[in-house]
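= Paired protein data =
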Amino acid sequence: MTDLTAIKADARKAAFARRKIAHEARTGAGAGHLSEVLAGYRGVPMSGFMAIRTEINPLPAMEEAAAHGPVGVPVIQRLGLPLKFSRWEPGCALKEGPFGAMIPEVDDFFEPEILVVPLVAFDRRGGRLGYGGGFYDRTLELLRGKRPTLAIGFAYAAQEADNLPLEPTDQPLDMMVTESEIITF
């Protein structure tokens, strides 16, 4: 294990602990600011995510966005590959995907121009620490190579960290939304 790998593992462990506390203390859905941001992009193809474990829940904002244009959720094809995004609609049939995240039962893939991105930790410079698989970094690099693609982090404010252990391959966020604020970079 490299030093950076160990540093990232420690940063994830600390961030998971903060996220758990924030999740247990949450009041309301927490997606109000995300809905506010997405309202400015009505009709633009976007992806959200199906919250797992103690992640903040973007579903209320995704439901609002789906009334105006395509909304997808990430589908992991296999380790080492970018994500694909399958169209999701409120009430659509779901099945369990890799790592326990729910995905649409029927694949209807498209490329989003806005990605609402889950994360373990973030900083005030657009840095994001994910789960370690590199899925969003590969995906954002691929999509940004084709067209402007907006990456919006969505997490609890308690997941903010200083001095994230970032690498050159880590794709930056354009915006960060928490239950208490909207941060643009």
Observations:
- DSSP finds four helices and eleven strands in the chain.
- Residues 3-184 form a domain with the Rossmann fold fold (CATH 3.40.50.10420).
- The longest strand covers residues 71-75.
